[in-house]
Specification:
It contains 21 helices and 28 strands. With 753 residues, the protein is of the alpha/beta class. A hairpin with a 2-residue loop joins β7 and β8. Bound molecules: 1-deoxynojirimycin. 1-deoxynojirimycin binds next to loops.
């Protein structure tokens, strides 16, 4: 198709930048500003005038400012098509919209919450889940998701830990980058080398830039105070990885960082993200965050707020209306340079060109029925749910419930607790398009799998009746935990204990049960100290999604190996948090023979450390062997460890490599995750697992983001979780001047993420 002469930007053969320049040059100032305005839930009839004027360029389909836990009517291809038709046919230049939605952990097929996906430690799985989410959401006309969330979450009082990849920056960077690739289709669809996306690709959004996970006291939206090195080494790291992975957009966060609201943080947005890191896409504000600059006390009114935000580098104003109301005037009065508007518009238009919207903004309404919740998507959701199950305790091998050959089912099983029959509650926060009726409850999956077993079920509403049934059973599965309303945005808690009454009920069940298996379904790492000796087995399951029941039962029966690992440390009690494996050493380390910590009323360490999780077979680790005890300037060293399955069941071992710098110019963490390998081991199998260690893997960043390769002695440890395994020492020759890369320089090795 050749482009009409009056719309040369429609010529598909032109490079993206040229099409953008042609379109932008044709725009009035008002039309340009319109591209920077994002509205919520527009309607082609009600908003006909605004559409004709090109008064907004993107929109979000959402139920409101706390959309994460509030369902809405959803979006459908016909509705989006009607909107696009109005935008294209009624406006002077015919520019289509980008329709955005929070597609966080699946669309119609709901996968485990990100914290649950993180428990897999499996980037391929995360990528596959995001790919399916994109395929399904694009069938409803959505082309932009506000995911992945990349905030490193070390304080589980903060409800948004549910949306995170856990406490570790390396894991967050790897899984976050994989999610970006999945949404955008790096593996089988796009970006296709020419900067354009396939029709089933969603533009991803790395959020919330940056440091939001440090909200004081875990109170959502609260201030953040963090030093520049910790910001660089921990909190910016997943964002650098996302930029390297080609993330299309970034969202600035709500909070103030060292007194500066992120929506107005020129240093971190315009200078660092867009400058040093070279991010070329649009930055969108969080919901109403431009307007909130007034409440933060840095702007008199929304006019000043618009000026501050645009100057800082926020290109798109999500729902405040401050840009639409004031930017044109600010430019005319000379308060905001038009070049800044042009730059922002260029970024938005480039996104539209890359998404193919200028060429075809419409979605085939028949596609949703073909791609939503297919058998294949359900199978992936089931695998993901099983991978999210972290087995924490299994006294006397009460689990798995079945022998390796599938026999030995208990004669009577009682399934009890609020999660026994739960459906939509299995989804977790941010599930806008999942349907409860699609979900498989745990009790249904037990009945399905243990066909010859007498299965009784109660939903925990009558705790006394549950005890009567439990007394009769050979095995009791107590499915307790947090309702999704207790995690996610704006859902902080002061206590990480199980919800009121649940521990008491578990104690009562323990008194009458022959064998008690406790399954804790949750949106956050809970403090499980009171469950230390309760029952015979304990599993933690971050909200597992639509196939949650099957996934949990697959693991409990042993049909699927127990393979989940903790993406966050589990504290004994709430007062221990923040608690994370990668803390700095103190000048007064604990004496191994002395008190167990600094608290007068508790030990310091976690109940279960980061990376922990049991399998159904004992895995033996050999000594860590290095191909050389010295890493030269340009060199690489192989770190190898032998792992052996000494049990009678297949297992999946997640071998983790940690590093500790003995000495550096600044104090570095006692434990830094630098590599993960998941290996499948049949009974009796032995495998040598190998990691490639290079300078990038051991580097850290200085206060402005320069990579520092300082050299010196490092201790490497390969093991099953943080703080365990076999170690070896490595002498690292420093790079010239101790520094080899400038901020934003693309790493030469993926391990530098
Ligand atoms: C506010 C949340 O902080 C953000 O994560 C989300 O994408 C937006 N609302 C839009 O719903």
């Amino acid at each position: 198709m050749t482009a009409p002469a009056h719309r040369p930007w429609l010529d598909r053969t032109l490079p993206v930048a040229e099409r953008v320049a042609l379109l932008r040059a044709a725009m009035t100032l008002e039309e340009k500003v319109g591209q920077l305005v994002q509205v919520a839930n527009p309607d082609p009839v009600r908003d006909a005038d605004a559409l004709a004027a090109g008064a907004f360029g993107t929109c979000i389909v959402a139920s409101g400012e706390h959309a994460g836990n509030v369902r809405d009517a959803g979006t459908q291809a016909e509705a989006v098509n009607a909107l696009q038709r109005a935008a294209v046919e009624s406006s002077r230049l015919g520019v289509p919209l980008v329709v955005a939605r929070d597609v966080i952990h699946g669309h119609r097929t709901v996968f485990p919450i990100p914290l649950g996906q993180a428990a897999s430690f499996d980037a391929d799985l995360v990528r596959a889940c995001a790919r399916v989410a994109a395929r399904e959401a694009t069938a409803d006309g959505v082309r932009w998701t506000f995911a992945p969330m990349l905030d490193v979450a070390q304080d589980p009082r903060w409800g948004r830990v549910a949306e995170s990849w856990g406490e570790d920056a390396w894991l967050g960077a790897h899984l976050g980058a994989a999610a970006v690739e999945g949404f955008q289709g790096a593996d089988d669809a796009g970006p296709r080398g020419d900067g354009t996306f396939a029709a089933d690709a969603l533009a991803a959004c790395a959020k919330h830039y940056v440091g939001y996970g440090l909200a004081q006291g875990g109170r959502d939206y609260a201030e953040v105070d963090v030093g520049p090195r910790t910001l660089q080494n921990r909190h910016l790291r997943p964002f650098r990885a996302a930029v390297d992975a080609g993330v299309a957009t970034v969202m600035s966060a709500f909070h103030t960082l060292d007194t500066v609201p992120m929506t107005a943080h020129e240093g971190l947005l315009r200078a660092h993200l867009k400058g040093d890191l070279g991010f070329a896409g649009p930055v969108v504000s969080d919901w109403d965050a431009v307007g909130e600059l007034v409440r933060h006390g840095v702007a008199h009114d929304t006019r000043e707020a618009a000026s501050l935000a645009l100057r800082a580098g926020v290109d798109v104003d999500m729902v405040t209306g401050a840009y639409g109301g004031h930017l044109a005037d600010l430019v005319r009065s000379g308060e905001v340079p038009e070049e800044l508007v042009d730059d922002a518009v260029g970024r938005v238009l480039a996104l539209k060109v890359r998404l193919g919207l200028l060429d075809d903004p419409f979605t085939d309404p028949a596609r949703a029925a073909r791609v939503h919740l297919t058998t294949e998507h359900r199978a992936l959701a089931r695998r993901a749910a099983a991978s999210a199950v972290v087995l924490l305790r299994d006294d006397d091998g009460v689990l798995p419930l079945l022998a390796p050959d599938g026999t030995g089912a208990p004669a009577r099983v009682h399934v009890t607790g609020p999660f026994a029959t739960a459906r939509a509650e299995l989804f977790g926060t941010w599930t806008l398009d999942g349907r409860g009726e699609d979900a498989v409850p745990i009790a249904d999956a037990v009945r399905e799998r243990l066909a010859g077993t007498e299965v009784t079920v109660d939903d925990g509403r009558w705790p006394d009746a549950a005890l009567v049934a439990a007394r009769e059973a050979d095995v009791v599965l107590a499915c307790v935990g947090e309702h999704p309303m207790r995690s996610g945005e704006a859902n902080s808690v002061t206590s990480l204990e199980l919800p009121p009454g649940q521990v008491e009920q578990l104690e009562a069940l323990a008194r009458v049960s022959r064998r008690l298996v406790v399954v804790v379904v949750t949106g956050r790492p809970l403090a499980l100290g009171r469950l230390a000796h309760l029952g015979d087995a304990l599993a933690l399951v971050p909200h597992p999604g639509v196939e949650g029941g099957h996934g949990v039962v697959d693991v409990l029966t042993g049909d699927v190996p127990a393979s989940g690992r903790l993406p966050s440390s589990i504290p004994w009690v709430t007062g221990q948090v923040p608690l994370h494996h990668d803390h700095l050493p103190t000048g007064r380390p604990l004496d191994p023979g002395g008190p167990v910590g600094r608290y007068r009323d508790h030990q310091d360490g976690p109940m279960y450390p980061f990376g922990f999780g049991l399998g159904y077979a004992p895995v033996e680790y050999g000594a860590l062997e290095l191909s050389s005890s010295r890493l030269e300037r340009e060199g690489r060293v192989a770190a190898r460890v032998r792992v052996a399955n000494r049990g009678d069941r297949p297992t999946v071992e997640t071998v983790q490599l940690y590093a500790r710098a003995r000495r550096a110019s600044v104090s570095r963490p006692v434990s830094e995750l630098v590599g993960v390998r998941r290996v499948e081991l049949a009974p009796g199998d032995e495998r040598v697992v190998s990691f490639e260690v290079d300078h990038g893997l051991l580097a850290h960043r200085d206060a402005v983001g320069h990579t520092c390769h300082e050299g010196g002695r490092f201790v490497l440890t390969a093991g099953p979780h943080a703080g365990a395994g076999s170690s070896a020492e490595l002498d690292v020759v420093p790079a010239p001047h101790g520094r080899t890369a400038e901020p934003g320089e693309v790493p030469t090795h993926s391990s530098d993420r």
